[in-house]
Amino acid sequence: MLALLCWPVGWVSAQTGASPGGGGVERRALLIGVNQYDEGCPRREMPENCLTNNLYGPTHDVEAMKEVLEQSWGFRREDITTLLDSSAKRSDVLAALHNLDEWARPGSLAVIYFSGHGTSPQNSRNPANLPAADTGALVVAPDDLKLPRASYLVGRTDIRPVLAHLDAKGAEVFVAFDACFSQNTARSAQARTRMYRDLGLGVQRPTDVSASGASTSSRADDSPYRHVFYISAAGAAEPALEIGGDRTYDGEVHGAFTDAMLRVLTRRSPHSESHPGSMSYDELADAVEDFMRPRAYGHTPVRMPGRYAADRAVAEHPAFEWVSGAPLAVAGNRPQAPAGVRVRLDASARFLEPSLEQIPGVSLAAAGENDAEYLIRAANRGEAGQVIVTTPGNEPIYGSGGLDGAYPQDARSVVHSLTLRGSLRRLFQASEAQRGGLSLRAGFTDDAIGETVAAHNPVSLFAQVSAPAQVLVLHLMGDGSTHVWLAANVRNPECMQGLDLQPGQGHVLCQWGGAEAPYGLDMLYVVAFSPAIRADLASPGSTFDAGFVDRLTAAAKAAPDRVAVREVRFYTVSKKYN
Q1: CB atoms closer than 10 angstroms to residue 451
Q2: Tens digits of residue pLDDT in 57-114
Q3: 246, 114: one domain
Q4: Alpha-carbon distances, residue 235 vs 181, 380, 453, 576 (angstroms)
Q5: pLDDT of 473 over the 90 cut
Q6: DSSP class per residue in 31-46
Q7: Are residues 408 and 429 in the same domain?
Q8: Is residue 319 domain-resident?
Q9: What is the CATH number of the domain that holds 514?
Q10: Nearest-angstrom CA–CA distance, 495 and 487
Q11: Which range marks the domain in which residue 357 is found?
């Protein structure tokens, strides 16, 4: 789907009242949703004579968000303004933003939410020829289909001055976009399946990360604001999904990102845990990300300020104030380990069932169960043994790196790949069994990457530990091949020399120049042992198999407080989504 969210915490409405809510904070909300762009255009198609395809979810998103803000977060009905379909034209949205700016004062709280289409220069149907690579725009309801397409865009040049003025006033603002390319304030104006994937091998010398975790050579995570927290559904090159029916928290169609956020805000997410005090914006973002990650939607939320920004005060501020029910907070630094790998077989691929039932850590989802991580179908009903593997969002596990679908795979290679994925997932689960021991943070240093790494887009993998430790870095690619990037007997110019990490400081483990074949869904596993890795596990060679992973799992079970594992999943693609 394509649904955008923009929430400043302190808003603007044509109304003049203010709701005190928790702690006497004045608050308002502007909720915008556009389903209907062109009455003559089918929802799931986009003929050339149509403005863009219509959507199913935005009005449901707005209605659900309004209910949550009223019932759980202290907003009065009269202080929530909704703009839907034909009432959400460019002039309407700009007027609402102006009213927000006029209303806000120091300490006020606002929410602005948009659900609908968006665009950016990375969209091949870029409707307004947006010039800058890092810009984007919301696609609002058109005033007149005969007018230039720029007349139904609300771009970053419209939004950022408002945010800057609100920030200067001292109003707190929460901005969120559930949209394609939404890191840059937009959602795709076309509905196309996307596939993104693997690590490239451009050699760059690793560098340490500063004590805050940010690369000393870049401050990409920094924010131009002090009082604005922004979260998007996806990275700069990623589309975002609209999901339906039995996959959402209330049975209605929603953006996948919106559904996750609603679950967290209504305490329906398993990643929302009782915790004294209020939920911070960071904790909200963590919980949304933790819910989305194992469901393999193909896009990852991006936040600003990022995890390693120099000024993170707003990220640690309580999000709204919990008004009804028990205080809400979410899982912190240690995400909940997902269950074993879940696979759903199409009727055409039932011949795989006996083999998959024998794989430890892999289970089959029955018809009607919607928690499958991978979907398998026969590639050609007339050719036995060839299958296609995708995520529930139709993202290829192994493909060309473009937009033309998944590659067929031999059934034996799929069984081999799932055996490895099951072993690695059991390793992750074993390390999560003991939560009071070694703590490990790991991921890409640039939050904007999301879950997509494209060719020629450099990426860096960081890790931070709570005690002296040594690490391994293992890589499973979409076609089932493996690579060891960091180990005692492995020397890769992309990675640091030595295995030792010290607490209190982040370290860049490896740096790559971008994605290269094979493309698909990749997994990096960072495995930390404190104080040191056992000698028999420190030197696996340049590749690894399920037997080696099982030995790591046995070591983790024997000393769970001294072993920590992080799973970093991402799509590799030959070029950015367009």
Answers
A1: 25
A2: 888 999 999 999 888 888 899 999 899 998 999 899 999 988 988 898 888 988 888 8
A3: yes
A4: 6, 34, 10, 11
A5: yes
A6: EEE---S-TTS-SS--
A7: no
A8: no
A9: 2.60.40.2550
A10: 10
A11: 341-422
